[in-house]
User: Fold this.
Amino acid sequence: MIFQDAGFSLPELPAEVEALRAEVRTFVRTEIEAEGFVPACNAWMDGFDPAFSRRLAQRGWVGMTWPRRYGGHERGAFENFVVNEELLAAGAPVAAHWAGVRQTGPLLMRFANDAIKDYFLPRMARAELFFAIGLSEPDAGSDLAQVRTRARAVDGGWVVNGRKIWSSGAHRAHWMMVFCRTGGEAEGDRRGGFSQLIVDLKDPGVTIRPIHMMNGAHHFNETVFDDVFVPSERLIGQPGDAWSQVVSELGYERSGPERFLSVFPLLAALVRLAAARPDERRVVAVGQLTARLWTLRRMSIALLMLLARGQSPEVEAALVKDLGTRFEREAVEIARGLAAHRPGKDTHDFDAQLAKCLLVAPAFTLRGGTNEILRNVVARSLGLR
Ligand SMILES: Cc1cc2nc3c(=O)[nH]c(=O)nc-3n(C[C@H](O)[C@H](O)[C@H](O)COP(=O)(O)OP(=O)(O)OC[C@H]3O[C@@H](n4cnc5c(N)ncnc54)[C@H](O)[C@@H]3O)c2cc1C
Assistant:
């Protein structure tokens, strides 16, 4: 079998996490009834609602698996999965804390000094402090070795100059984890000489400009650094060592269930529509989409088991994200084919979800690493590149 080494066993979630699932569902239902949020597709990316994040944090559902000394709750990976899965399925607005908790927290836990961990992690777990991700630049997206933002060593720290792009939520976040060059490339090593610095987005010299999406929404930004001073204690890890740190960060960024659940509120609306007005095409579509979703979910849980065992399942994560994001895009196209008329956001729930999905779906296979790049990862593991 060509994928004999890929770690997809056939897992089930332990029965005891189902009580927690029921608790999250009750919370979500109460929130919706109280108009705490309106379920929306893609809300893990563009539903930035600090108050909602804080309500989750009060229940211990932000930074769930982190150690107590860093404000976490030492819950298991499966419990964390169930909470995330339910929030994604509900289309809850979790964007304020999502990326920071998903990837910056684990990065800090692994590589940051104690003072940084003690300051940032408890505030993140209380959803008081939000991070933006500063990786991509105008000429460096897929190939981060092309990053040109540079930090120069000065007395007591670093001075940063450069430009990041596509920084989701940077206009509302407090800090950015900036991937930059701090040294020359070592001879023949295009991945050497990079570092990660925590930049205060309110510091003088930081300018954040909006980049509007085609639906007029603003969650992207261009972030410019003009002689921004960063004290040395806000360097993460050792200077020049950030390449491997970023590879581990991308593992967290790519492996979660948000890579196939962005469109779940649309699928749920499609099921309601098919139940209310059944016809053969709708029923067949629901059956096919559900089967694919179920397979992806099983793969995602298997991936989680590998992560929980301390492994770095880069190839499995690439496979789930490639299959998951293609599923999301195709689901939107299938739903569009079943729509009775041109969707508008003020009409039926199904139409409103579809209208939003049509506008945001092109991003599904780009963000967090494009599908071509993910397939390169898979191809390399098969010795094909
Ligand atoms: C919704 C969204 C949110 C984002 N949020 C953030 C964020 O918060 N922070 C951040 O830093 N970035 C963010 N990004 C940026 C994202 O990570 C990049 O868009 C992505 O990595 C691709 O980089 P690029 O846009 O520069 O495309 P390019 O790298 O220029 O790629 C262009 C095309 O060429 C293909 N290609 C490139 N290299 C190869 C190769 N070696 N083999 C085969 N094909 C190749 C790509 O697949 C793609 O189709 C976000 C993007 C989106 C869409």
